[in-house]
Amino acid sequence: VCLYHLSCPLSISILVSAFLCSISFSYFRLLSLLYFFFFFLMIRRPPRSTLSSSSAASDVYKRQYQRRVRGSAISAMSNKVKQGEAAFKKMGKVNSELFSLTYGAIVCQLVHNCENLTQVNEQLEQMGYNIGQRIVDEFLAKSGVNRCLDFKDACDTLAKVALPMFLNLPGDVPAGSWNHNQTECSLLLGENPMTDFVELPEGSTELQYSNLLCGVIRGAFEMVSYKVECEFVREMLKGESENEMRIKLIEKLKSDYAPEDDD
Predict the structure, then answer these.
(1) Cα(231)–Cα(30) distance, rounded to whole angstroms?
(2) How confident is the model at residue 67 (pLDDT cuts 50, 70, 90)?
(3) Are 233 and 244 in contact (CB under 8 A)?
(4) Is the pTM here over 0.70, yes or no?
């Protein structure tokens, strides 16, 4: 504009300058209006996934809370796995083959003495129940676990700490196996050392060969104030792809001592 002023008469220079200023003013005013319009829309318009800006904020907080919950659950589960591995190192070891053959001899003797397989299943479960009630003290003394918060925590402790500690057999309680009331779940076992070298004869499909383990779980849970029912619903011994137990909470028993008495 300054170079243009030097080469033109004054009147023409004034007119051109005014025209350019009017154009520039209109241009910047238009840009300002457009900027304000779009900026206003960006501020006022809520995300499409929500109905209002407050619900958008609540969604953000909810996602952050869910991440923290998942993170704490994963951390707690990894701690239980480490506790199970450490507890197993403290235990006296027995040859697994000797264990399997001894248990098999007990089952064979029960089959010989009892009238039918239903009585055999009951006897195995009762034997396991007595073992479970006595084994809790050793578990609490050597595992180092804290008091379980609820039934779900108790099942996770069973799968990640107790089974590895006594049988070197880690279990898994899938999150999707819980019912709506959180009172029943599945316990999955990849292996079962009790069934090594075992093949069931024909006509023995009703035999719950590992029912002693169900009794151990029932007795141990009862000692920590949970009355449960436990049974095998799938067994690799019978041709299934994995071993699955169902654990069902029947009643929360009253404790004989107050929690504040614990040190």
Answers:
(1) 77
(2) low
(3) yes
(4) no
